[in-house]
Amino acid sequence: MGAFAQLVVDGLAMGAVYGALALAIVLVHQSTGVVNFAQGGLAVLSGYFAYTFLGLNVPLLLAILLSVAISFIMGALIERFIIRRFEGGDMHTTVVVTVGLLTLATGIAGWLWSYNNLRLPSLFPPDFFRVLGVSISWRSFGTFIVIIAIMVLLQLLFQKTRIGLALRAVADNPRSAAFSGLPVERLLMVGWGLAAALGAVAGVLVAPRLTLTPGMMDGPLVYALAAVILGGISSPVGVVVAASLIGILENLAAVYLPFIGHDLKIAVPFLLLFAVLLIRPEGLFGRKSVERV
């Protein structure tokens, strides 16, 4: 029983990492209507920004805050000068552009900082504490608390604030939002900036758990996309629950299902995804879309 509980706790910790990136994807979609595959690349760049500031003897917390601020500006500029050129056209074209931005971001990171493994310190101590015989690291616990806090803030942003409602209106129908007097172009920039800032948080949470490399977000991005589809792209709460479920199930399957093991555990979220979408195509917590004709 102790080993089972340990696997669940470790799965929750990894699920929190997937959830951080999944929340950034949800934020872009909720505010712009675009599924942003470039989110992983922007998160990688934010990790390198923080690493560079640390090299200039900037305190860790300030280095992270600066990287988040730079990521916000970078996200807004990407929307203004790149994504906006494709708005109003085929949505699939915009998605392909975000894939290209992902490749560009990781290439820039490798060119500027090399492809060597680098170490980014964590905000949380590496020590462990025990609860009911289960070892929990402060790093995993801190990451989980941060993701829960971000999830609650995003839910409040989109449900209770004027800017959140305005972002949703722009994503649903930019033309009607413009006729209503909303500053559509500025809101789109804000949406991309907020998502890039959230991606920066994901980057600085993931880098200490792994190592800082240009491709460090490739695996988490796959799991994050699975969590977005499984939980429902319209629900911040849903994607965090789905990400946690993915983290737990892949850990349990790797240990208790010998024919899967650690090599094939990446297939677990997709098998779960397939099973859920057969019953509920909009995801566990997603809303059914209704179109008037």
From TrEMBL:
GO BP term, pick one: amino acid transport
One annotated GO molecular function: transmembrane transporter activity
Membrane-related topology note: Multi-pass membrane protein
Main localization, broad class: membrane
Keywords from the named record: Amino-acid transport, Cell membrane, Membrane, Transmembrane, Transmembrane helix, Transport
GO cellular component: plasma membrane
Transport among keywords: yes
Entry-linked PANTHER family: ABC TRANSPORTER PERMEASE PROTEIN, BRANCHED-CHAIN AMINO ACID TRANSPORT SYSTEM PERMEASE PROTEIN LIVH
Protein name in the entry: Branched-chain amino acid ABC transporter permease
Species for this entry: Enteractinococcus helveticum
Classification of source organism: Bacteria, Bacillati, Actinomycetota, Actinomycetes, Micrococcales
